[in-house]
Structures are given as structure tokens and as C-alpha cells.
Here is the input.
Amino acid sequence: MSTQLVSAHQAELVRDHHDQFTPEHAVPRRGLAGAITRMTGALALSFVVLFPAMAQARGPETIADVSERVIDAVVNIKATQKIAQRAVPMPNLPPGSPFEDLFNEFFNRRGQGPNGAPPSGPQQRSSSLGSGFVIDAGGTVVTNNHVIKDANEIVVVFNDGTELKADVVGKDEKTDIAVLKVKSDKPLKAVKFGDSDKLRIGEWVVAIGNPFGFGGSVSAGIVSAKQRNIRSGPYDSFIQTDAAINKGNSGGPLFNLDGDVVGINTAIISPSGGSIGIGFSVPASIAVPVIDQLKQFGETRRGWLGVAIQDVDEDTAEALKIGKARGAMVINVDDNGPAKSAGFEREDVIVKFDGRDIRRSNDLPRIVAQTPIGKEVEVLVMRGGKEIVRKVVLGRLNEAPQKASATAETPNAGNSPKVLGLEVAPLNDDTRRRFNVKDGVEGVVILNVDPNSIAAERRVSAGDVIVEVQREKVSTAGDIRKRLDELRKQGQKRALFYVASGPQGTLRYVTLPID
Here is the structure.
């Protein structure tokens, strides 16, 4: 507040006081030198007059009030994992060797039995530090899953130094959220969640946590962006902030100026490991339903529609005759999923789900996951350029993790036919084996992709299989050319290629220009 007391009059006095110590008082101000002196004086005056506004731009004074009110609910998390010492094989010594006793003594000191037996003594301990916050007086603590993952022992450290052991109530890898429980002899200071959907870009926020193990550290900044997709999971929609978030801040709260938790600090982008002003928080709107399910069931129970989807770009929107690019395009319908019985088809574009607009494909999984299992919802779909409504009863998503697929080696392509920059060949036993194509996938295999082609830009690669071209199955390069000629005669400029990729036969659509 003291900076706001500096008036224009006081600023002039400061300038005059400085001037009386300059040698220019003894020499008339003439020419360029005098002009420069007068200009610098004017600049100084302008700077001091504007200084109060600049000081205000540093941030609101309520940050201190918010920090003082909530800091006791923010905790440090110490997670310890016990790791067995790696066994070292005993050298192959002849019986009665003078070195036998020496090596046995060495292995015993390491906690291994003779001849490199599994360790029976002390184990190595690996520790990690993170942050968390209390959400009820009974001792429920929220943090990140990656902070406590695989930990054998978890200790919650409070702002006053109190340490309490914690049990895991439940955790969710897909949103990186974990719920812990501690037992305390007294009610604990707790904070509540706010409405992250009401956050505005440019709004001030406060992060509190345990950066680099320092504990109880406060940083402030603004909301830089919303709904950021950093490709860390299927439900990405992060709050981006320039409030300093560093290693150890993971799991800590992001507060608005009302003292409500609007996000859970989770990730940063940094080449050095320190804050460069780009941090990400899970919004409360995503975190709260997950936390409620973990508290109630010890696991997540998400809604399931049973479709595979992808984004709709301008080219695809034109090919599908749906106008502007929007929504989530259905690229596959699970035969056992709710969408199948509700009449969903490939190439449907879902533009609204249960009354909520679907602007991009990653909106749909998040909204479906948050919808109660067994609820009947209306889904607005674009099909063939027309709007249709489908009603579907959601099932429950199977959360079992899938194994990552291996990458096939690319053999040398020969003088095979080329279509739109793609060198292709029939899919037979030989090409299926060489590219590790999934059984049941039929079509035309891609041997090589012109690096300067549109197909290369759309991430089409060798080993992919073209299953269909604009809903018609193909098995040779001639089939592809014939279908493209038909589409050309119909006045189409782009075609939808239905492509299977990798050993899992993952299906997607790729839109390519016909000419």
C-alpha cells in the first residue's frame, strides 16, 4: 500500500532533489544535452506516477489471506518402497577352495545366503516426496497416484510437524488421483473443492505444496489456459497455470482466491526439472467424481459407451458432409457394447452427449466416464449429413490395463503399385507375418510411404493395412484406384481410408485428397 502514497508532487521532489546534485546546475542546459536531461526527468516522473498501477499488477493482496487460511490443510507425503537387494551370483569355485569362506562371508554381509541365495537381511528403501491436502476433518487426504504408487509405507506430514501413517483408500492411474486415510486424535483442518468450470483464463490462483522437499511453500500465478490435452491419459483436460509448480508439488492443491481447491497439481513441462511457468492441474470437476467413487467403492466405476473414436478435421468434415469440423467420429463399434444395440455405426459423428456439446473427440470419454452406469442418455449424431438421435443405456467400463503393442520392422519395399504416395501390396501369409498383422484383419498392406505425401503427414506408416476406402472393402491396389475413380465422378475431393495399425489391429480413419 505504501507505493500508492507516492504522488506526482512527491515524484517531482524526488527529481528535483536528484537534480541539485548534478553539475548541470552550474552550466545552462542547452542543445541536445539539455534536451536529454529534461526528457529523462520527464520519464522518471512518468515511471513513478505509473508505479502504483505496476505494483498492483503483481497480484492481489488477498493471496496472503488465502494462504494463511488454508495452509494447515496442505500436507507433505513421504512414500517409502522397500526393494530387495539384487542377488549377486556366487563364483563357481571348486569344493574346498580357500576363497569359499571369503565369498560366503561377503554374501552374508549383503544379506544373501551362500551361493547367491535370495536376500534374507535388510532391504533397500526408496523414498519419494510429494504433496496432498485434507478434504474432511476425519482425515481423508488427496494426492497424486504417482506419488504413492507401489509404496509400502506412506506418512503424511502436517504443517505443524505432526506425522501420521496413512492407508490407501483407492487410487486411479487414468486421472493420477489417490485417496488416503489417516487417524488423528483431533479434528483436522480441511479444505473444500470449488467449481473449476467457472475459472477464467487470467484469474489468479495459488499453489501450495512441498517443492524439492521444502514443505509448506506458496506460489501464485494465473490460469494460463484451460482444457489442455497433454496426452497423459484418456481424460486429459488440464488447467494450465504459471504458478510455480516444481518436483514435490505433485498432489498439492491449486486454490482460487476464495480458498477453494480448483485443481490438483500434477505435471510440469520443464527441460531442467524446475518450473518454467508451465504447470498442469487436474480440474476439480474431473477429480471430485473420481474421489467420491474411490471413497465409496475403493475403485472407479466409469460409464461405457463401447465405441472407438477419433478427431474430425476439416477434410474429414467435408468428406462426411457435416459442415464445420466438430465432434467425435466413431471408427469402430464394440460388438458387445451398449452403442451396438443402440444402433451406432462407423462414421457416425457424435456432436452432443446427454445434453453436453462434444467439440473434440477427447471430450467424449471424459463425459461418458462421469455419467452414471445404467443411465439412459440421448446422443445427437451426424450421419450422412443429417442429424439423428440415439438413446443408449451406459454400461460399466472394464478398467483392466492393455499390454502395449510391439512395433513391426519395415521390410524393403519393391516395385509395388503406388496410390496417393503409398506403395501397397496384397495382404497374404508372407506380408501378414512380416508386418505382424493381426489375424482377421483383411485389406491392402502398405509397404512404404512417400515422406512428402499427405499420407505421411497423417501418420500413415509402413505395416498399416487399408481395410476400406469410403466404406467399401479393398484387397488390391486396383480396388483402391477403382473406388477413388468412383468418388471422383461423384464430385468428391477427399476419401476416407479405414486403416488398421499394429499387432492389435487398432482401427482409425484417415482422410486423404483424391487428387
